[in-house]
Structures are given as C-alpha cells and as structure tokens.
Amino acid sequence: MTRVGIAASRGEQALTENSQQTLWYRLAAAAIPRHLYLKSIGTTLFIGLFFGAYFYLLKVPAYPPTVMPITLLDRLIGFQPLALPLYLSLWGYVSLPPALLAKRRELYGYGMAMGGTCLAGLIVFYLWPTAVPAANIDWARYPGVELLKSMDASGNACPSLHVATAVFSGIWLHHLLRGFGAPPWILTFNWMWCTGIVYSALATRQRVTVDVLAGLVLGVLAAYLSLRHRVNTGISGA
Questions:
Q1: pLDDT in the model for residue 235
Q2: Closest residue by Cα to residue 113 from 40, 237, 39, 218
Q3: pTM of this structure
C-alpha cells in the first residue's frame, strides 16, 4: 500500500473512532426529552414521599435507637466539611438514570426498583432504629454541616440509604452509559462521583462504616436484581 493509501486509511479510521465517541452523547441527549414531564414530576414526587416517610420515622422511632459502633476506618477517615457538596450532590446524581431512560415502561420499572430499595431501608429503620454516635466536634464552626445535622439527625443510620441509592444509581448509570457507547473516561467519572458520595457520608460524620457497608450491600443487590429483570424482560434497549 502506498503512503497516500496508508494515510487515507488512517484518516478514515480516525473519523470512525471520532464518530463512535461522539455518538454516545447524541443518544443520551435524545433520550432525555422523552417523557420529560413524567420524569420531572415522578422524580419530584418520589423524593417528596421518601422524605416524608424518612423524617417521620426519624422523629418517631418505634423503639429506642441502637447506637452504631465506631470502627478503625471511621477513625482513619477524618472529619472533612468540604465533603458537604459531594454529600448534597446525591440528589442530582440519582436523577440521572431516569433522565436517560427513553421508554415509559423502563421508567416505571426503574421507579419501582428504586422505590423497593428505599422501602426496604425504611422497613429496617422501623423495625430496628439505629443512630450514629455523637462526634466530638463543635458543629457551630461549620454552618453548612450544622444545618444538615439540624435537618437530618443521627437516626435512621443503618443501612445508609444515602449510600444505597448512590450505588444503585451508579450501577444503573454505568449500564446505561455503556449501552450508549460512552467512552471510558465518562464511565470512570461516574464511579468517581459515586465513590465521592459514599466517602462524603463518612467524612461529614453522617454515617459510620457499618452503615455504609450495609448501604453498599442493599444498593448492589437492588441494582443487580432490577437490571437482571430489565434484561430478562427484553426492555434493555436505550
């Protein structure tokens, strides 16, 4: 093959690779407007209902809460108030998977799976109330974290639904993004964000390691079962 032919071949290959890398976000952008009202209203309603049940159980536990134990990892991870934005970013993060679903049936299935995950945690909170041990920290020095503490007290600790929903969303996002053909850096960013949210639950002293591990198990199990059902029912197309 001549040099001109080799150069042309490499040019075509580069164009093909570039097209494959740009196609994923076009597919994602096309999915977002589908059933936009259903996504917006459904997500808002779901979060509202969840917080209503969560705060009710937080303020009126059926039994005296069990204080969760401190582990070595809790001592190694120091309090980091700068992790608060990561902690709060969960509410944007959990909105991403349903935003990328294009079919109404998929949205209903996803909502039921996420609802089942939260319901499982709420049932545990009711039958076995738990609390995070008090930290020797002057919260007045950290107004943002103090505000969070005043709204979300130390109860409803185990399993951490903050972690469970982050992991559930992270696994679903990975599945959907791979289906769109997203490049590795996007998949890596997704897991970095998810990991940051999990870390922030410990760094803000909202949860301890036992709570986080229980949340991880719940989130992984719920995501695995819901995605397997999605594939088995043949609605895995984006």
A1: 59
A2: 218
A3: 0.87
